[in-house]
Amino acid sequence: MTAPEVQDYVGFDTITQQMERKFLKRGFNLNVILVGESGMGKSTLVNSIFSTHLVDSQGRRTAQEVIRKTTEILPVTQTLDENGVRVRLTIIDTPGFGDQCNNEGCWVQVIKYIKDQHAAYLERELKPQRDRIINDTRVHACLYFLNPGSRGLRPLDVEVLKRLTEVTNVIPVIAKSDSMTLDERTLFKRRVKEEMSFHRISVYPYSSEDDDDEDRMLNASIRELVPFAVVGSEETIDVDDKPVRGRRHGWGVINIFDETHCDFVHLRNFMLRTHLSDLVEVTAQRHYEQFRTSQLRQIKELRAQQAAAAAAGGGGGSGSSQPPVGPLPHQPMAQV
Amino acid sequence: MKSTAGNTGGIQKKKMNGYVGFSNYPNQVHRRSVKRGFNFTLMVVGESGIGKSTLINTLFDSKIFPDREEMPPSAEPAKGVDVTSMSADIQENGVKLRLTVVDTPGFGDSINNEDAWQPILENIESRFDAYLAQENRVNRSKISDNRIDAVIYFIKPTGHCLRVIDIEFMKRLHTKVNLIPIIAKADTLTASELELFKAKILADINYHGIQIFKPVSDEFDDPETVADNREILSKIPFAVIGSEKHVERPDGTPVRGRRYPWGIIEVENEEHNDFIKLRQMLLRSHMEELKDTTDMVLYENYRTQKLLSMGHVQDNNVFREFNPLVQMEEEKRAHDGKMQKMETEMSGVFQQKVNEKEAKLKQSEEELYARHKEMKSVLEKQRSELEEKKKRAEVSARPVTPMEQQHTTKGKKKNIFSGF
């Protein structure tokens, strides 16, 4: 059926402006979790992406400092303002991840946190009296930090990525890529993509039927770059009297905004300029929905079991089809 | 010419009048050593991809380690730590070196790296054991020395303090080998970051009491050596890069290095990294000291501990002549004494038993005798009775009057009873 032609100007095309205005008033939430061993450059990178000192490095600074025994979850929220648009940015750091001799299960706390946010959102959604706007604490993106120089994915990476990609949008990065030549980077990226496809690890961006040609091309070019080989820096150095955000080595100066030096610009544009709303949307539509479906199914099964038990006991039936407000049967640890 | 004599504990210092020639002795040693050739065993430890093979190939300017083969993603990652060794005979200026490099693939690569040092420690100790066994052989003319002279431990360039696995590894191995920790992939860090990082590493090492190999100068060293040693010491732990490839500098000269979009880092440029210092210490100035420390300190400590734990006791009375004949005499005497004791014991026991038996037999003898007497008396009685009967029978051969019969029967009765 072809769309009918509109004769006069009606004006519904101003909806985009209306939405924008509403958005400006309301602001939005962006939650990003950083997963990687100590010393991979997590804090520096995130501070570089947002051009603000958002998080402090949690690395051990003195010999007397006690080494963490488990993975901790450290969320830090700040409100950033750019041209009237407010974002409540929460960066979740995971100090202790992968730092032990025995790293079995070091991902458990991370997965639990992500699922807890989904669960919290679901709980508020299911309330008979819902808040008009639910504060969205769901994790919209996970920056996963790979080790430069390894053959490809390490056994730990494979285990963790498999689990992370099921609950959130994962963006793999190499943060300290100033030790990799361009050839080495190409080789490493190819290797990582091969291994991810072998282990059926699907990272963001995902392809969907809604994509038009432009989206598809953009996504394809982004997938080419994955994992992003970036360099982070909070320092500005003088190069020929010009301020450059980068790192000064004895043999040269790295300009993180130089596309020939590293993928920083691509990563930042991808995360903030082109795919920001998509990240939030996909979290809601894909990961949250998945979680929600499995949770509600579990509730239903629980109800059914209880009803069967009650019927067997000869007591009154449950009958109610409305799930009550109460603690949700959140995934036990074992499933993680 | 006067001869000056100073007394230092019984040793007199004498000055010679002319050239004698024993100053040529070091040259003789040198010639002999060169003829014999040297060996040097190096172990490299660090996670996969950190640059172990590249560094070794760069240090010795030859492909000791071949290129890594690419494994398909379906290949199972290696479980645990493997210890493999590779030997190469290399020659320079007529000096032959048998270089052995021991690799430890798999260290730190698994999810669970607890006890990753165990196979490495066992390997080091087994080499000590092999040497110990050879020393104890009857014929010791050919001892092959496979002991590890140094372990190069690769630290990831995180910029933070040492990781748990670094500390645990070094704590367990530092008393068994010369430990040389280095910062791998030095091109990751800027000069100021490196300075801070080195300080943090040294602080951690001191805090945990880890002993690493350091060049020390003593009073016999010339000022140049002392200065060199101080310079080397100031750069520890070395931050190095390796490269087997040559790249062209802007002015066209080829150097070993790595090319980045922002510049070229040169392996042999001391301003870019500490490779030169590492090579100098390892090969040019302190190779002998590494071997010496391994032989005289680390191996000896191991040997002492091992022998003590096996029950050998240091006989501090003497270092007298060990005379096997005397030993045997003593043993024989001890043995004889023991035998003697056993003999007396046994004869005592024997005697005791004999006495017992004798007593028993005596007792039964007496019993038998008593029985015999008893039976005899019974027999006697019976005999006397029979005699009586016989007499009576003879008397009753003449007719007996009924009065006499009555009388006799009464009398017999009486007689029977009167006998008692």
Fold and architecture overview:
The complex is a heterodimer of chains A (336) and B (420). Chain A is an alpha/beta fold and 336 residues long. The termini of chain A are far apart. The radius of gyration of chain A is 23 Å and the shape is globular. Chain A has one domain: 3-Layer(aba) Sandwich (Rossmann fold). Helices cover 48% and strands 14% of the residues of chain B. Chain B has ten helices and eleven strands. The longest helix of chain B is centred in the C-terminal third of the chain and has 72 residues. Chain B is elongated, with a radius of gyration of 49 Å. The chains are: A alpha/beta (336), B alpha/beta (420). Chains A and B meet through helix 4, helix 5, strand 8 and strand 9 of A and helix 4, helix 5, strand 10 and strand 11 of B.
Please give the largest β-sheet of chain A.
6 strands, mixed
What's the overall average pLDDT of chain B, rounded?
87
Largest interface: A-B, 52 and 51 residues
- Going by helix content, strand content and strand pairing, the class of chain A is alpha/beta
Number of strands of chain A: 9
Radius of gyration of chain A: 23 Å
Ends distance of chain A: 48 Å
Per DSSP E runs of 2 or more residues, the count of β-strands of chain B stands at 11
Could you state the oligomeric state of the chains shown?
A: heterodimer
Termini of chain B, distance in Å? Answer: 140 Å
Per CATH, the superfamily of the largest domain in chain B is P-loop containing nucleotide triphosphate hydrolases
CATH class of the largest domain in chain B: Alpha Beta
Query: What general form of chain A does the structure show?
Result: globular
Show unreliable segments of chain A. Answer: 316-327, 331-336
Proportion of beta-strand residues of chain A: 15-25%
